[in-house]
Write a structure and sequence with these properties.
The chain has 637 residues and is of the alpha/beta class. The protein is built from 23 helices and 23 strands.
């Protein structure tokens, strides 16, 4: 077993850059979690997962640490508190959690529990989300209503206001405003209204197109004036309390945000001049980024600023313009969903096998003589002399020649396999030799990617990491154990779906994204990988490709380094998943029994065998959609 230093492990997986202050590598060679941000309160993840499996939980596992949510909320609140104190900002700050980022009841509940002292608001983007907020939010606390709205949505919002909640209905399209005013008049309610501005400035990063003058939502300048006229005509201009804009999700640079803040603040001041004297809230939306790849740079998966710099930019830009105009500072609102929940959740998957392509032995030379050209190409590849570039050219020539000769029928399958084994061994040797050179020739540096093995893990990429498949979103991935051993393998990770897209070929390394994951030699012990920062969007966007359902989810509390299970939610059974696509147990069992009866009548299949098949089928319906060890299946039966 080759020893590996702490610094080498940190560099290989980039943990200090994307994991701080919640994840680190411990002296035991395991990933450690410290949900309160204090490394002295750490618990070892490898040991934790082993204990969970012993207790009957089944990988893949979603592990949630609600304490991380509490710590994130404290950091965001503190950053704004410090910025406000430093600039004598008089408008205050209010955070709101957008439910769409993770709607799970345990997650939203933890957010509200952890923010009880500050009274965090909730943002709803649909009728179902509004109904969640209406039921969970405390009286007098804030609910922001975004998204497309029909009469039922607006009536529900007015009912929430009647129940004592601080509801602000944000008008995204101009035709929503007359409908809201009409319904409010019928209900005899003075609504609290916000307007969403369609700013000219664009945000930054992958989602920059969700902002700017071609964005999906928001009112143009002309529509803003029409909204003011309509409010004035209905004696409701005093109901306008908020201006909202969105500069884009995962904003990786502050400069575009500064421009948006300037434009939005000018708009707020103009609306006040037009008579909106109660316009005292500026909602700057989401966009507070998460450093997924640890690069701390302009990558769409990173950010160039700190949380403190983000808060200071918002406070500075708004206060300077308001002060210059002699106007009161508005209360600042943010909808920082991703930055609140991304860190608190990770996915644990178990490696269940490997592709043997790279492990083929040097085959014996075929009994039939080799074609002269092929023998010459093999001799060149096996020659110890030549530069790295020459050796690479020899290998490529052998590959092309072998393929051509086989397709033309000039060599047998046995000869092809022999030539390919030589080619593969030579590529591996070239890869190792290239690492001894500071500047290997172009192309050779990609050999680690090209020669990466494919290891298979028991999970569905489409269910648990849909953003990786859909929008090339990378997440930190690393072994949970054996980090004090040198990883000798370079691997890609394939899931267990039958889709060729179900494979991960990009991995977060030391402040960059690499084409392989360093991994250890598999042995008779389980090998677990952690996929980190998956708390935002992944659970709720996951789909049922190949009918793989939700995995087991476990809520963990860590106190003084001791972890305990606070709550668990069993993953979908096969029956639950099948029912979602219209296959119910009664129907399925009836079809199985009918098939058995037909076989009994036509081929004398014994009735006892039919009952055995039916009983096993019914048991399987209650089983996990993912692969299970044989002993687990025997225990459940």
């Amino acid at each position: 077993m080759a020893q590996w230093s702490f610094d080498e492990a940190c560099e290989a997986y980039g943990v200090p850059h994307w994991g701080a202050p919640y994840f680190s590598i411990g002296s035991s060679g395991q990933v450690c979690v410290h949900p309160d941000g204090d490394p002295s309160h750490a618990t070892a993840m490898g040991d934790l997962v082993n204990k969970l499996v012993e207790q009957g939980f089944r990988p893949p596992l979603v592990l949630r640490f609600p304490q991380i949510i509490g710590h994130r909320l404290q950091l965001i609140q503190s950053a704004f508190d410090e910025a406000i104190a430093a600039t004598d900002y008089r408008g205050g700050y209010q955070g709101a959690y957008p439910i769409k980022v993770n709607q799970q009841q345990r997650v939203v509940g933890a957010i509200l529990e952890q923010s009880s002292a500050t009274g965090l608001g909730l943002e709803a983007g649909s009728k179902p989300e509004l109904m969640i907020a209406m039921a969970l939010q405390k009286r007098s606390n804030l609910i922001l209503c975004n998204g497309f709205k029909d009469a039922e949505y607006l009536q529900t919002a007015l009912h929430a206001q009647l129940l004592g909640l601080d509801v602000i209905v944000i008008i995204e399209r101009l035709d929503e405003l007359p409908l809201l005013l009409s319904l409010a008049s019928e209900a005899e309610v003075r609504p609290r209204i916000g307007l969403r501005a369609r700013l000219r400035g664009r945000g930054s990063g992958k989602w920059a197109a969700s902002s700017g003058d071609r964005s999906k939502f928001g009112l143009t300048s002309a529509e803003m004036l029409s909204a003011v006229d309509l409010l004035r005509q209905n004696q409701a201009l005093d109901c306008l309390h908020l201006l909202h804009f969105h500069a884009g999700s995962q904003i990786n640079d502050l400069e575009p945000l500064r421009h948006s803040l300037q434009e939005a603040t000018r708009l707020l001041l103009e609306l006040r001049q037009l008579g909106a004297h109660n316009l005292d809230n500026l909602d700057i939306g989401g966009g507070l980024a998460v450093d997924y790849d640890g690069s701390q740079g302009n990558s769409s998966l990173s950010k160039t600023y700190t949380l403190e710099e983000y808060a200071r930019a918002a406070v500075d830009e708004v206060s300077s313009l308001c002060d210059a105009a002699g106007e009161a500072h508005p209360r600042l609102l943010t909808e920082a969903g991703r930055a609140t929940v991304a860190h608190h959740s990770l996915l644990v998957v178990e490696v269940i096998g490997e592709d043997g392509t790279l492990h083929q032995r040097h085959l014996a030379e075929p009994s039939a003589p080799l074609p002269t050209a092929l023998q010459q190409a093999i001799n060149e590849v096996e020659s110890p002399t030549g530069s790295l570039a020459q050796k690479q050219n020899y290998i490529e020539s052998l590959e092309q020649l072998t393929s051509s000769l086989f397709k033309s029928g000039q060599i047998s399958l046995e000869t092809r396999a022999y030539a390919e084994s030589i080619e593969r061994l030579a590529l591996n040797k070239l890869r190792l030799e290239s690492r001894q050179h500071d500047a290997p020739p172009m192309g050779i540096t990609e050999l680690d990617n090209h020669l990466a093995e494919t290891w298979y893990a028991n999970f569905s990429l489409f269910q648990s990491l849909p953003d990786h498949w859909a929008i090339d979103h990378d997440f930190p991935i690393m072994p949970l154990q054996r980090l004090d051993e040198r990883p000798e393998h370079r691997v890609h990770i394939g899931d267990i779906t039958c889709d060729s897209d179900g494979e991960i070929r990009r991995f977060v390394a030391d402040q960059r994204v690499a084409g392989f994951l360093p991994a250890h030699q598999l042995n008779d012990k389980p090998y677990y990988l952690g996929i980190f920062l998956v708390g935002a969007y992944q659970e709720i966007l996951g789909d049922l490709h190949n009918l793989f359902g939700d995995p087991d989810a476990i809520e963990i509390q860590v106190k003084a380094g001791v972890a305990r299970v606070d709550y668990h939610d069993s993953g979908n059974s096969i029956e639950e998943v099948l029912s979602q696509v219209g296959y119910h147990e009664e129907f399925l069992m009836r079809r199985i029994m009918a098939a058995g009866q037909a076989e009994h009548e036509e081929r004398q299949l014994p009735l006892a065998k039919i009952r055995l098949i039916a009983e096993q089928y019914r048991r399987d319906l209650s089983g996990y959609t993912y692969l299970e060890p044989i002993e687990s299946r025997e225990e459940s039966s």
